[in-house]
């Protein structure tokens, strides 16, 4: 049985004090809801406060990016080893905003994924098509390509620490959500790509999330789909009641 994972992605929001307060409020609301893993991926400056606030709870903390080198002249970047020492367990890699605004490519996504996995982190690898690509009929081709590039040189054993998040670019921060059938179809393409690389057994065990305006209103319908194993949640992950409702839907 593959694990359902509900992960919040705070992006560039929440100060350390706000993060601490939020987690203290959220923890009792999601306590005992263990049919899914609960993760909050937070800005670097929030990690210390978040990991401290989450101690003794069922909330795991993740980061939002990682560099592919262990050290060096990369001003402003953070290595996988640095993240491990902060106590995070997960890291988001290749989010569409990183691709759009910061020059992330499929190849650097692969390098970051390998760096994270080699350091023992769990990688949440993002893939997704633009509206233009979807309208041209390239969704399946693109999702399989992005997935396969991201997982190049990843071992079958390391796949236990890989989560793939299908995030249609046209549904991120727009309020437009893929229909449940579209989400299931996209996640299915991702799973098929994993099967082509690693075989059906590993594909069946790989958690594939849907991300793209999943919220408290549509989570139950999306999570009911066969290929949707959780969500990578943006705005709703910063409202305790909404995030709890999504966790409830997953449970």
Cα-based radius of gyration, to the nearest Å = 17 Å
Level-1 CATH class name: Alpha Beta
Shape: globular
Biggest sheet: strands side by side, in what order?
A: 1-2-3-4-5-6-7-8
Mean pLDDT, to the nearest integer, reads 96
- Described by its quaternary structure, the protein is single chain
CATH architecture: Alpha-Beta Barrel
Main sheet: strands, sense, barrel: 8 strands, parallel, barrel
Q: Could you estimate the helical fraction of the residues in percent?
A: 40-55%
H/E order of the elements? EHEHEHEHHEHHEHHEHEH
**Count of the separate structural domains:** 1
The end-to-end distance, rounded to whole angstroms, is 14 Å
CATH superfamily: Aldolase class I
CATH domain topology = TIM Barrel
Strand content: 15-25%
The count of strands amounts to 8
Number of helices: 11
Question: Which structural category fits the helices and strands?
Answer: alpha/beta
Low-pLDDT parts are none
List the helices and strands and how they pair.
Layout: E1 4-9, H1 16-30, E2 36-42, H2 47-54, E3 59-63, H3 80-86, E4 90-93, H4 96-102, H5 106-118, E5 122-127, H6 131-135, H7 139-150, E6 162-166, H8 180-198, H9 200-205, E7 207-211, H10 219-223, E8 230-233, H11 240-250
Parallel strand pairs: 1-2, 1-8, 2-3, 3-4, 4-5, 5-6, 6-7, 7-8
Description:
The chain has one domain: Aldolase class I (TIM Barrel, Alpha-Beta Barrel), CATH 3.20.20.70. Helix content is 43%, strand content 17%. Strand 1, helix 1 and strand 2 form a beta-alpha-beta unit. It has helices at residues 16-30, 47-54, 80-86, 96-102, 106-118, 131-135, 139-150, 180-198, 200-205, 219-223, 240-250; strands at residues 4-9, 36-42, 59-63, 90-93, 122-127, 162-166, 207-211, 230-233. Helix 1 (16-30) packs parallel to helix 2 (47-54), helix 1 (16-30) packs across helix 11 (240-250) and helix 7 (139-150) crosses helix 8. It starts with a strand and ends with a helix. It has 251 residues and is of the alpha/beta class. The longest helix has 19 residues, at 180-198. The protein contains 11 helices and 8 strands. An 8-stranded parallel barrel has the order 1-2-3-4-5-6-7-8, surrounded by 6 helices.
